[in-house]
Amino acid sequence: MQIRRALFVLAATMLLASVSLNAAMAQPADAPGRKITMVVGFAPGGGVDTLARVVAQELNDQAGYQVIVENRPGAGSNIAAKAVAGAAPDGGIVLFTGNSYAINQTIYKNPGYATEDLRPIAIAALDSQALAINAGNPARTLADFLQSAKVKPPSFGFGGSSSRIIADYVLRVMAKTEAVAVPFQSGAPALNALLGNHVDIIAAPIAELVPQAQQGKVRVLAVTGSKRSAAFPDVPMLTEAGFPGLEIYGWIGILAPSRTPDDIGERLNAAVNAAVAKPSVNAKLRAMGYEPHQMPFAETAPFLKNSIEIWRRMILATGMAIN
Prior knowledge:
Order of helices and strands: HEHEHEHEEHEHEHEHEEHHEH
Number of strands: 11
Helix content: 40-55%
Shape: globular
Distance between the termini: 78 Å
Largest sheet: 6 strands, mixed
Strand content: 15-25%
């Protein structure tokens, strides 16, 4: 009798374990509670990293995910992109990146992965670039600055590939000045050089210029994009300043391994869009100088393809070296 009872208990235990295992296997790969590693290709503390942590926290709190941010800086964010491109397409690892990813598809002959190895999931924010000068510079408009540039070629500083491309394209390709490029390791030293009058003008993401502009230390002359920046509503777009066609935006978003199923992409896209739409998150992004953005999953692939092509045309026009 005891043996029968023991066998019955054992059979029941195995049945319950089987049911639990089947239920777990049937659970969507990105179901609430799913652990996700969000890889950032930049060092902690930068704009992309800060935004990644805001989004990750919201996904943890509101969508029920368990998102861990992991920084893998280097090679213009290619190290992080390569790691995610080679990962399992199950929603367990994603890349949080910006338009440097789009730029890298042209300036690197071999970034370590193919463009087709990653697919966009969500675009969380847009990030316009701006041209700015020291507040002590007598120029009040971009036209004023370019007029003086005909007499004395200016130096322009930049701390990233997108900033260099914008400045180079505006000053040397379109305005046809003999401006001299001065590279810096990041946006912060480029801005410090401007404040110290070591360079005449810089190109930088709007988010990096907001604090100094608010303190009256720099003057923003023009911004990229198809509408004026909420951070600088009185500053004209480049298209308004005589440079038609420069409506390009920087962007920050999430990419995943290319074979990630559509249903996982749809759910994560919806969660990111809901996070960005939340008033408190929206306000945080705007305070950082970003334009919160919500894009349906189906539109992300065409958006990325267009971004890559726009940057490609500008890079080739400037004659930048291909690595």
